[in-house]
Amino acid sequence: MIKPKTSFLERISNIVVNRLAGPMAKFGGIPVVAAVKDGLVAIVPIVIIGSLFLLLAMLGLPGTFSEGALIPALSSLAPKLLVFFHITMNFLSLYAAVAIGMNYAKHFNIDSTNAALLSVAAFFLININDLTNGMDVTNFAAGGLFAAIISSLISIRIYRFFLEKKITIRMPDGVPPNVTNAFVALIPFLVILTVLWIVRSILNFDITVFLNSVLGPVFSGTDSIFVYVPKVFIGLLLWSVGMHGDNMIGPIFEPLKLQWVAENAEALANGVNLKDLPHVWTTVVERITIWPAAAWGILFWMWRSKLKQARTLAGIVTPAAVFTIIEPIVFGLPIVLNPFFLIPFILSGTIAAIVTYGAFSLHLINRVFVELPWATPPFISGYVATGGDWKGVLLVIINFAIGIIVYYPFWKAYEKAEKQKESVENEKTANNDSTLSL
């Protein structure tokens, strides 16, 4: 039997789905990975609020955005605003430890209260060794994020081992569940927390410092144009075959982006110049890079199209697209597996990624130190997240222009093909009408 021939697009789709999307979907479904992703998503509101308070504080402090305070009325309030920032952003790892531990416990149906208590206690024990001169909370900031992740995951995993092996205190029937949970946790808590105390306080082994010294150079090297651009390319490739590229590849980089924006915020609070903040890659940078080029570029031609259905669709999808909700365009036009749009969709976003990262890495634009809701329009986030740098808005416009230019020949080819299709259909309709009249 002769196998039916497959088109070029079908072969691309099969390669992406079977060789790329499949493994990524499995990776994202691993309980450890899912727990980290969900835990970090849970603390995003704290990050957003904390970074916005930092922005307000900087507006009231001289020397940040101008020689004097940009908003003098905030000057007296700035120190208090910084306290809010420190309590939120500089305790980021502590919040993450609790959220990740609770989310990991959900996969094993472990009591959430016990999971939260165990996670926070484990985090304290691996980071605090001496209270003689007060509590040193240095490791509670973004620098302790990976230690928080590991301590929560390991603690919950060992706790589950005790529960599975029934190495717990058993209570008689009829005892209230909250009392039962407390006594069930007693033995595993004792063992886990004692081991962590021995490691940190008796052996004087600082897990956070060790992880940062070993993994720090690796993760810092990830914030590179040679990683950022391929990440954007692969994400758009997944979108182009119907996969949610952000969800598929995002979990790999979420912990890093969260740490990077927090470190930028801390550096700014310590007086580092906005253009010299340590990191380029943040969630905001992604949002002002990809969709102004890959989504807004084609939307421009839809509005100017001679095709009525394209203009109608443009009116429907534009409100969502302004907030970078691009599913209506991707699946409504569609862009997915469309031979006319697959190449410019991927190409425009990839070129924009090169331009954007290059502009930030060359210190042409203030670097991002604020985390904003993901649906914030890029022209707003490009201005706010860079501390009011107008070049952040200009970069969004440039990326938009890249999309318009890249899409132009492909859109014209698409319009021509659609016009020809309309002509053929109109001719068939006219022939059918003439036949009926006879």
How are the secondary structure elements laid out?
Layout: H1 8-29, H2 31-42, H3 44-60, H4 78-89, H5 92-106, H6 112-127, H7 145-164, H8 177-184, H9 186-202, H10 207-222, H11 225-240, H12 245-269, H13 283-294, H14 296-303, H15 308-322, H16 327-332, H17 342-361, H18 378-384, H19 390-437
Helix pairs in contact: 1-12, 2-5, 2-12, 3-4, 3-12, 5-6, 5-7, 6-7, 6-9, 7-9, 7-10, 11-12, 11-17, 13-17, 13-18, 13-19, 14-15, 14-19, 17-19, 18-19
Description:
- With 438 residues, this protein is mainly α.
- The chain folds into two domains: 32-215, no CATH class; 223-433, no CATH class.
- The chain is built from 19 helices and no strands.
- It has helices spanning 8-29, 31-42, 44-60, 78-89, 92-106, 112-127, 145-164, 177-184, 186-202, 207-222, 225-240, 245-269, 283-294, 296-303, 308-322, 327-332, 342-361, 378-384, 390-437.
- The chain starts with 7 loop residues before the first helix and ends with a helix.
Features:
438 residues; mainly alpha; 2 domains; 71% helix
Summarize the structure.
This protein has 19 helices and no strands. With 438 residues, the chain is mainly α.
The parts where pLDDT drops under 50 for at least 5 residues are none
Strand tally: 0
Major sheet characteristics: none
Q: Into which percentage range does the β-strand content fall?
A: under 5%
Shape: globular
* SSE order: HHHHHHHHHHHHHHHHHHH
- Work out the radius of gyration: 27 Å
Straight-line distance between termini: 45 Å
Mean pLDDT: 84
Q: What is the helix fraction of residues, given as a range?
A: over 70%
Structural class: mainly alpha
The count of domains is: 2
How many helices does DSSP assign?
19
